[in-house]
Structure formats: C-alpha cells, structure tokens
Amino acid sequence: MSRTVLLLPGDGIGPEIVAEAEKILHAINKKFDLKLAFESGLVGGAALDETDNPLPDDTLEKARKADAILLGAVGGPKWDSLPMAKRPEKGLLGLRSNLELFANLRPAVLYPQLASASSLKPEVVSGLDIMIVRELTGGIYFGQPRGVRELENGERQGYNTYAYTESEIRRIGRVAFEAAQQRGKKLCSVDKANVLEVTVLWREIMNDLKREYPDVALSHMYVDNAAMQLVRAPKQFDVIVTGNMFGDILSDEAAMLTGSIGMLPSASLNSEKQGMYEPCHGSAPDIAGKGIANPLATIISAAMMLRYSLDEEKAAAAIEAAVNNVLDQGLRTADIMSEGCTRVSTREMGDAVLAAL
Amino acid sequence: MSRTVLLLPGDGIGPEIVAEAEKILHAINKKFDLKLAFESGLVGGAALDETDNPLPDDTLEKARKADAILLGAVGGPKWDSLPMAKRPEKGLLGLRSNLELFANLRPAVLYPQLASASSLKPEVVSGLDIMIVRELTGGIYFGQPRGVRELENGERQGYNTYAYTESEIRRIGRVAFEAAQQRGKKLCSVDKANVLEVTVLWREIMNDLKREYPDVALSHMYVDNAAMQLVRAPKQFDVIVTGNMFGDILSDEAAMLTGSIGMLPSASLNSEKQGMYEPCHGSAPDIAGKGIANPLATIISAAMMLRYSLDEEKAAAAIEAAVNNVLDQGLRTADIMSEGCTRVSTREMGDAVLAAL
Ligand SMILES: CC(C)[C@H](C(=O)O)[C@@H](O)C(=O)O
Ligand SMILES: CC(C)[C@H](C(=O)O)[C@@H](O)C(=O)O
C-alpha cells in the first residue's frame, strides 16, 4: 500500500523551507520503510504567476487524491493589489474548503531551549503547552452573502456574514473535546455570546456536547477576555476551541507568546483524517530567497503529518527527537538566535536535523 | 452655564468605583468652579432588576441631555442566561448606538510605578503608550440581519452581519488620523483585507483619507498579525484604528500588556464630543461588594471626561497628577499590589486621591 504526500511550496520562504522538510521526509521514508510517494503542485502566488489561478485544477485534483499535504506558505506584496478572487490566499482557502479541512489544530508550545526568545517573563510562559482548535471551513471566512454594494444614498457598504450551523459547531466541538481528553482534560470555548447570536448557538452546542464528555471540564470565555488572559496567564489553558476568525487571531497571539513562531506547526484535518500541514508563520517575503528562514516549523509539521494523517507515530517521534537534538546542540536560525548559540542557514538547519535522524 | 454629568454606576464593582470617582468630581467641581451638575441613573443589570429593561427610557433621556456620562460597568452571572434582548450588555450597547458614540478611545499606557505588574519583560513594555481607536456603533455588533434561523434540513444556523459604510469608516478614520497628529504621527489600520470584503473597503477609505493627513504615516496590518505584534513588540505602535469587533479584542489585549488594567480609562465620543467614559475593566462580579476594587481607572476616566467633553484641561491634569501622587506614595489596591507597597481599600484609594488633589 503506497500513500501519497503532496508538497505545495507556495510563496515567499515556502520553497526554501519545504525543500528542507522534503529532505527529512525522504530520509524517514527510507529509514522506516513508509512507502510514501511524493508529488508536488502549485498554489498561491506561484500558481497565479503560472496559471492565473491561485488554485489550479491540477493542484486541487492532486490534493483530493493525496493522503496528506505539506504546504509552505502563500501570499506576498507582489499580489496584494489583485482583486479578492485572484489572491494567493484564495488558493489556501480553496484547499481548506474543497477538502473540508474543518479542524485546524495549532499547538502553542514553548521549547525549553528557546525560553528566552519570549517577550513574556519566563515564569509566565515556562512549560507553556496550549492546543488551539480552530474551525476552518465556516464562520465569517466563508459566509454568504458577502461583497460591496451600493446603498440608496449612493455610498458603498462592505459586508460579510458570520454564520455557523449546529452540525458545523458540533463536529469541531467533538474534535476539541477529544483533544482535551488526550491532554489535560480542560476545554475552554471562546465566543462573544454577550453580543453575537451566532456564538450564542455556538455556546449552546458546546454545552450540549459536554454531556458526552463527562471527563472534560468545559469553560466558556468571551473573546476579548481570552485575548487578555493569554497575555496575563496563558498556562491556565489546555485546549481552546473557537470559530474561524477568533481562532485566526487567538492562535497567532498564542503562538507569539512562545517568542519562536518559527517553531510552530499546524494541522488542518477533515473527517477522514486527511490533512494539510503547514507552519504557523507566513510567507515572510522580506527574507525570501536569502536562505535564512527557519525550516523547523515545516519539519515539525511534517512530523505532525506522519502522526495524524499517516499513522506513523514512530517516524513522527523520530523527527521530533532530531529537532530537539539540534536545538540542544545550540544550532539556531536567525529568528531564534541568542547569545552563545551557533547561527545556521535554512539548509544547514535541515542538514543538521537530517544528521540527527 | 451649568453642565450636567450623568453617573451610571451599573453592576458588580460599578457602584463602588463610581462612588469614589464621584467624590473626586465633587471636589474638583468646587476647586475649579466648574459649575457641574450631577445626575444619576440605572443601566445594565441594576436597571433590569428594577425596571425589566437594561436601558430604561428615563436613563436614555438623561443621557441624551447630559454633557458627559461616567459609567461603571455592566453585566454579571446573575443575568447571563437571559435572552439577548434582556441582557445588561444591551444597556451599554443601546447607549453607544442611541447617542452615536462611534469613537472609542482606549489608551494602553504603562505607569512606570506599576511596571512590574506586566507579564511581559520590562524592556518590552517600559514606556508603552498606545492609543487604540475603535469604531463603536457599527460593524458586526450592530449589523443586520442577525439571529438564529432554521434551515431546510431542520437544523439551526446562527448568523450575524459584519458591515461598514464608507461614511462610517471615514468618520472613525478622521478621529484616528487626528489623534495620530497630536501624538507620534503614526497610524496603523488593522483589518483582514485578505479575506473579508468589508475590510477591503475599510482599507481603501483609510488610504483615501491619508491624502488629507500628509504628516501622518499610515500603515496597514492584518488583525492576526496585529495580535502577534502587540505581544512581540508593542512599542512599534502609536495609534491603532480598527472596527468594533477587532477593536474589542485588540484593546483588551493591549490593556493587559500593562498588567494593570485596573488603571485604564476609555472614552466613547460622538461628533459633538458628547462622551461616555468608563474604565476598561469590567464589572468583576467576583470581587463586587468587598471594597477591594481599584477605583483609579474610573477616576482617570473622569479626568478624560473633563478633558475631552468638558474642555477642562486643568481640572483633568489635576486629577491625573493626584493619581500619580498616590502611586508614588506606594498606595496600591489588591490588583496592583506588589512588595514594599501599602495595600489600601477602594475607599482608602479614593480618599488618598482626594487628599492629593
Ligand atoms: C493567509 C490567511 C488567509 C490565513 C487565515 O486567515 O486563515 C492565515 O492567516 C492563517 O491563519 O492560516
Ligand atoms: C460588555 C461588552 C458588550 C463590551 C463590548 O464587547 O463592547 C465590552 O467588552 C467592552 O469592550 O466595552
């Protein structure tokens, strides 16, 4: 039985970091006899440049057939002034929605070796380990109607729709409760139920689900308070579940608490556990092509892929151990560099992980 | 010419903290011969309990006539399971929208005396001074249609509408550009223009306005990145302008960077500079009635009221100087207490400010 991994380097630093992850995947494929086959495709700005479409049919077809996808990043100033339908981001959003990758898992974990990189006091973040479960194919990202219309008085109005159905809420809720069961058994659902009707329904369904997970402690928090509590005392959280837009904001905030967003992976899964894996950081066009980007978030995303979509726990753990090993050796790319460590390039970092395997 | 200030204590710690601010206002009224007349009214849960309406007609009428309003806080678990229309928050939202208080100014300032209260490293936050300008009467808070509907397949869907017209964006934009002119001349507009059409219009109008304010440097940032940058390097910001929902989240996050949200005031203004002033913190039902809440944010809000709505700069500065003085004396309520300082109650703190006047 051969399984297919689709590599989508994308834009900016995407190609550089995916190349390093690819090296690791090839090695691990051999070492553990995983029988993985690799394909690659175009997405985002790279696809726009070649095909005038941020998500070419060919890429979508390959994605549907793949067992898992490893994506670098999309977007950059080059395409920023294009109309909404022709933006690199549409490639990413199209993959998420076409493959129904509704469950976005974003861990915010502090690597002890990198504790000093955080802008927070060590006692506030040491040992930090939060899992954010973000709904990824609904909410205001995909709600209809949307657009810009002309009002009777002649002025324009922009509008979007924030909507969730019971079943959309229930399926992401289950993922979050199950994640909590496997971790610290604490789930915090984030909403704005004092203002937004859609999140009143969200809260109701979460309370409903709670009955099926008696071992998980469920709490609710308004999104403004959650944004504060993440700064004040992030270690109070175990698993956080929230909608697409709030999840976008809070997961980036949580990631930055660690100070080393260049280390954080993410997984986007559908109900068949088919998944797309990407680093949390973006395409970083300012450092693209310089060979200094940190490939570790992508390499750790590849490990997450082996674990969640390909059921290869041992291979995943081997990659994670190798990453820990290079950190212990004091090797650092520019973004996580600190005194007394050795600064390495993107490729040198990839090679070091390879050697540590 | 007598001017009227309406006091709305509200819920939770509201009555305790507004009582202290009232003492200060009475004293300053005499000292500077301000000819202020005071009224008071019910709002939020307190109003619900008495009149079954979170914003009684009597309160709304007094509010319309007042030159300025000082509000404590609204809400608490007692009223949390009421239907949306009967919630304390509707009292607050009703005041904002009926008086068209579209411009919410939320400073996030670090008091040097309280620097150690922050969960961030001192070098990251020392000297922090950000002004967040949040649109307060539009966006998803007030967008129509909204509610919960039954779909054809029988399941329910919750929905809200995120909408802004050009003129709504333009008027908040002007407030922000003008605030930037009076400060560090840097304005960062926060949106999600890579996903949401309504914020594409937002960005376009901000770019338009920029031409009228050649001395202000305008930048744009996606909201997820802004949530990160506030944690990573908050001092990069001078003035931030954003919509109602993003402003709710980011202003609370920014406030918490200081570690002393019990110190932060806010102003909500309409185009006649009529304003409602409130502390940034909420009603804190867990400590209500214990006499330990920090009244300083409300007292500083009263100073802001004198400055922005009543044009009494000297009186405002006198209050602010008195607050600085009590901090220098080492007096601290529980929330900002630290070693070597003297812990005081809500009333003792109010009395100390009074004495320092
Ligand atoms: C690139 C953008 C469309 C995307 C999002 O908003 O979801 C990104 O910020 C993310 O979080 O993956
Ligand atoms: C109480 C609530 C409705 C309110 C808001 O969301 O605007 C509060 O969080 C605030 O920021 O003033």
TrEMBL record, chains A, B:
PROSITE patterns: IDH_IMDH. One of its GO terms (molecular function) is 3-isopropylmalate dehydrogenase activity. NAD(+) binds at residues 76-89, 282-294. It holds the Pfam family Iso_dh. Its cofactor is Mg(2+); Mn(2+). Keywords: Amino-acid biosynthesis, Branched-chain amino acid biosynthesis, Cytoplasm, Leucine biosynthesis, Magnesium, Manganese, Metal-binding, NAD, Oxidoreductase. One of its GO terms (biological process) is L-leucine biosynthetic process. It is found in: Cytoplasm. Mg(2+) binds at residues 224, 248, 252. Residues 4-353 form the Isopropylmalate dehydrogenase-like domain. It catalyses: (2R,3S)-3-isopropylmalate + NAD(+) = 4-methyl-2-oxopentanoate + CO2 + NADH. GO terms for cellular component: cytosol. Pathway: Amino-acid biosynthesis; L-leucine biosynthesis; L-leucine from 3-methyl-2-oxobutanoate: step 3/4. The record marks 141, 192 as: Important for catalysis. The keyword NAD applies. It comes from the Bacteria. Substrate binds at residues 96, 106, 134, 224. Belongs to the isocitrate and isopropylmalate dehydrogenases family. LeuB type 1 subfamily. Catalyzes the oxidation of 3-carboxy-2-hydroxy-4-methylpentanoate (3-isopropylmalate) to 3-carboxy-4-methyl-2-oxopentanoate. The product decarboxylates to 4-methyl-2 oxopentanoate. Homodimer. NCBIfam families: leuB (TIGR00169). This is 3-isopropylmalate dehydrogenase. It comes from Marinobacter antarcticus. The gene is leuB.
